[in-house]
Design goal:
743 residues; alpha+beta; Glutathione S-transferase Yfyf (Class Pi), Chain A, domain 2; Immunoglobulin-like; 4 domains; 5-stranded mixed sheet; elongated; acetylation; nucleus; SH2 domain
């Protein structure tokens, strides 16, 4: 089943997450129509290879053309229109930067895998629960309801102001009519009666002015309370969700809803401001003793302007945090002289502001780094799929400045990966006579000068965003706080779900907890230090816990990803627990686990039974990325042989724990099926017999551990079968031993 087919079967709450990251940059209809083809391409590699990206872009356009031909025959007008639009987009937007579309598609596929992984995990962790609790959802609904009510109140007040204006115009007309009469006429009884009516009308005007000012005051108070409480909390919650999403957590939605609320509030405030201006206009035409307008209007206008200033300042946000396109799963880690992207949005979406706001990007003020590239751009509504007022910087590069001695600060392999920096942005909004200066900053970033520093830099980003809501504590690592173990384990599981498509279960997390603490502990109570996580070596090892875990992530990503996604790698299990699990199983049952002593290594252990009935266990020396580059791990499991005491080579691996036949578990990942291998008489290319590497180990009588599996014999399976037919076991053992110990 394709990945897209699995996505379509998700529950609605997960489908809503998928919907959030498909837009006009990569329309969902193309993902749907070309699902199989898209999933069969290596978009991640193309994201770092311009020539490969260009080929994939051209092939993508060809695929779209083929779909166009098909739907044209079906006369599907809507789909024809959409596909033509997509084709134009692909040719126009990405022709000069094909790596950009590769990054976008790679990110979309990765997010799909993360969501599929999250959907398969039955239990939510404490962080995810806190982000999705019912109180937050209820507040979101309340905010939307109150904003709508405020908008209606402001519109109703508009009608009151219009009624007041009409009433005053009638009063002006009648008053001027009396004033134009001759003196004799003014003394008539009819005129005196008209004067009494005018006085009554003036009393009504006074009452209506007071009523309108009171209604405006109530609307302003409601907006003030909403902005000070619920809307501020909602914005802070969104920023917290963004922090969590940056370190692998659930995708953060809700920005479009916030934009709607901010925009409606801004429109209502400007509407109230116009109402106050209209009252000022009425004041110039008519005033009297006790007139409420000159007393109350200045205070109300000052409050409206104050709320507008605050609303605009809070609406300027970093929509997408700084990230290098080459490392989309490691945002906020920036390498000197390498481009990164960052996107900002103004949540107040007013057409008058389109292309009128120019944003300037700078780096923090210590003068150690500068930003190279285009660092001033105008916000517009054309680049975003939803028409939001935003700007994306795509060509910024951090550069380290030379010190007075002519050298560069910490650049080189020892640049401090706990040193935090901030990318700042500033702009100015001029609208309806108001001038508002806006500033915002990215979450803290870590600068590196060498890719080898990336793992430790990413650890710093994880620890910061896990431990604090403060978006700008650049001195955080002067005294980093401890983290709750339960939350840290949840984040570690996210590293696996977001980076390699499958999170960790409770048993795997238990093993990591014991490795971190050296004991069985209560997750919710235990506090783990930063040093224990990333600075102190594991007991008896020359590396830290994080370096060990990062090496495993890299191993999975590059060499055993399909097996990991299928859930066939137990991975995190201690030797002691491994033996407990296997001891009562059928001989030949094995499991796969990551090495605790070798960085980036995976091994397998199987259970066997001696003639006297005793159970014994065998583990091979861990396979690292060097060995797995030469031979796929699934093929190793299929072809692995051991030479036991009777000198007969055999594959001891029969069942994957607990009782899954090996070929059923891994068959679809074999590079070729055993029955497809040619016999010697079939011949290979240019008359040669096709050959493959076969991993062989020998178990000696006085040892329960096999020799190193690094001895891979260049022997075809068919040749091996012929040897079994024509040579004695002793002869085979002599030949294999010669290769094992003298190659």
């Amino acid at each position: 089943m394709s990945q897209w087919s699995q996505v379509q079967q998700l529950e609605i709450k997960f489908l809503e997450q998928v919907d959030q990251f498909y837009d006009d940059n990569f329309p969902m209809e193309i993902r749907h129509l070309l699902a199989q083809w898209i999933e069969s391409q290596d978009w991640e590699a193309a994201a770092n290879n311009e020539a490969m990206a260009m080929i994939l872009l051209q092939n993508l356009i060809i695929q779209v053309d083929e779909q166009l031909d098909r739907v044209s025959q079906e006369k599907n007008l809507l789909l024809i229109h959409n596909l033509k639009r997509v084709r134009k987009l692909l040719q126009g937007k990405y022709h000069g930067n094909p790596m950009h579309i590769a990054v976008i598609i790679s990110n979309c596929l990765r997010e799909e895998r993360r969501i599929l992984a999250a959907a398969s995990m039955p239990v939510q962790g404490p962080l995810e629960k806190s982000l999705q609790n019912s109180v937050v959802s209820e507040r979101q609904r309340n905010v939307e309801h109150k904003v709508s009510a405020i908008k209606n109140s402001a519109q109703m007040t508009d009608q009151d102001v219009k009624y007041l204006e009409d009433l005053q115009e009638e009063f002006d007309f009648r008053y001027k009519t009396i004033q134009s009469l001759e003196q004799n006429d003014k003394n008539s009884a009819l005129i005196k009666q008209e004067m009494l009516a005018l006085q009554a009308m003036l009393n009504t005007l006074d009452y209506k002015r007071k009523e309108v000012l009171s209604k405006i005051g109530r609307v302003i108070h409601e907006m003030d309370m909403l902005m000070s409480n619920m809307l501020t909390e909602e914005l802070l919650d969104w920023k917290r969700r963004q922090q969590i999403a940056c370190i692998g957590g659930p995708l953060h939605g809700g920005l479009d809803q916030l934009q709607n609320c901010f925009t409606l509030l801004a429109e209502s405030l400007f509407q109230v401001r116009r109402q106050l201006e209209k009252l000022d206009e009425l004041l110039t035409r008519l005033t009297y003793d006790g007139d409420p307008i000159p007393v109350q209007r200045p205070q109300l206008l000052e409050k409206v302007n104050f709320l507008l200033y605050n609303l605009f300042r809070n609406s300027f946000v970093v929509e997408r945090q700084p990230c290098m396109p080459t490392h989309p799963q490691r945002p906020m880690v920036l390498k000197t002289l390498i481009q990164f992207t960052v996107k900002l949005r103004l949540l107040i979406k007013l057409p008058e502001l389109n292309y009128q706001i120019r944003v300037k990007a700078t780096i923090d003020n210590n003068r150690r780094f500068v930003l190279c590239g285009t660092h001033v751009k105008a916000m517009n509504m054309d680049e975003s799929a939803n028409g939001s007022l935003s700007v994306e910087f795509r060509h910024l590069q951090p550069k380290e400045m030379k010190t007075s001695s002519g050298s560069k600060g910490n650049e080189g392999p020892h640049m401090v990966t706990e040193e935090l920096h901030s990318i700042s942005f500033e702009t100015q909004v001029c609208l309806y006579g108001l001038t508002i200066n806006l500033e915002t900053s990215s979450l803290p970033v870590v600068m590196i000068s060498n890719v080898s520093q990336l793992p430790n830099a990413w650890a710093s980003i994880i620890w910061y965003n896990l431990s604090t809501n403060d978006p700008q504590n650049l001195s955080f690592f002067n005294n980093p706080p401890a983290a709750t173990l339960s939350q840290l384990l949840e984040v570690l599981s996210w590293q696996f779900s977001s980076y390699v498509g499958r999170g960790l279960n409770s048993e795997q997390l238990n093993m990591l907890a014991e490795k971190l603490t050296g004991q069985q502990v209560n997750y919710n109570d235990y506090q783990l230090s930063w040093a224990k996580f990333c600075k102190e070596h594991l007991p008896g090892k020359s590396f830290t816990f994080w370096v060990w875990l990062e090496a495993i992530l890299d191993l999975i990503k590059k060499h055993i990803l399909p097996l990991w996604i299928d859930g066939y790698i137990m991975g995190f299990v201690s030797k002691e627990k491994e033996r407990i699990l296997l001891k009562d199983k059928t001989p030949g049952t094995f499991l796969l686990r990551f090495s605790e002593s070798n960085l980036g290594g995976i091994t397998f252990t199987w259970v066997d039974q001696l003639e006297n009935g005793d159970v014994t266990f065998h583990s091979v020396e861990p396979y690292n990325k060097g060995r797995l580059s030469a031979l796929p791990f699934a093929d190793i499991l299929r072809d692995y042989k051991v030479i036991m005491a009777d000198n007969v080579p055999e594959n001891p691996l029969k069942y994957l724990y607990p009782d899954i036949p090996k070929d059923k578990a891994f068959g679809k990942h074999y590079s070729c099926q055993p029955n497809e291998v040619s016999k010697p008489s079939d011949g290979g290319g240019k008359g040669y017999v096709p050959s493959v590497f076969i991993p062989v180990s020998k178990i000696l009588n006085d040892s329960t551990e096999p020799h190193s599996p690094s001895d891979l014999l260049p022997m075809s399976p068919s040749v091996y079968a012929v040897l079994r037919e024509h040579l004695s076991p002793t002869a085979i053992e002599t030949a294999v031993s010669c290769k094992l110990f003298h190659s």
